């Protein structure tokens, strides 16, 4: 099948896993793995947009990741700020709308400020929606959705799957890619992943390539999505 005839997932989710193990196997500090991982995120955004992905959600930092050492967490937070601020001009040029999904209030103030600026500046961009999942957990998202529904005083008999979906942070996924050899979705968009296709790459995230992404899309095109039919 030629690339021109390929079905491209409307909403692609990527769990970027394996930065630390990639570094460890090369005798490098974990920080270097995260730094290389950040560079690969920038590549992924370009590759995805070039192929026609309309929504890209990247799982950067989970609610569980707060359990890591304070030094490592602070480093990741600084990298997250760089990922947002250093690419703002390019996001504007490419028409990419930036959003952060997750528990924003738990993030450092300097990162919250960078997020607010990026979201406001790119609000009207239409070419692609880029979600960074930061301090994100699927169960936490559902809890927030329930709170929103209660605050709106929606009667129980009126609550439907559609109502819940509307109160979540982002939309249903078509495809989830997870790197790093693990085969689980680790609390990533668990409501939205109900009917998504899953692809588990044996490569650690810093080693993931453009050719690997094309292979994933080729595999995606060979699947039949029946939605229970």
Characterization of the model:
The mean pLDDT is 95. The longest helix has 21 residues, at 30-50. The chain has eight helices and six strands, in the order βααβααβαβααββα. With 229 residues, the chain is an alpha/beta fold.
Please provide the ordered H/E string of secondary-structure elements. EHHEHHEHEHHEEH
- Class from secondary-structure proportions: alpha/beta
How does the overall form come out from the CA principal axes? globular
Instruction: Characterize the biggest β-sheet.
Output: 6 strands, parallel
Poorly predicted ranges: none
Radius of gyration: 18 Å
Core attributes:
Undecaprenyl pyrophosphate synthetase, about 15% strand, 8 helices, alpha/beta, about 230 residues
Summarize the helices and strands and which ones pair or pack.
Elements: E1 11-15, H1 19-25, H2 30-50, E2 55-62, H3 70-85, H4 88-94, E3 96-101, H5 109-121, E4 128-136, H6 138-151, H7 161-166, E5 175-178, E6 197-200, H8 210-221
Parallel strand pairs: 1-2, 1-5, 2-4, 3-4, 5-6
Helix pairs in contact: 1-2, 2-3, 3-5
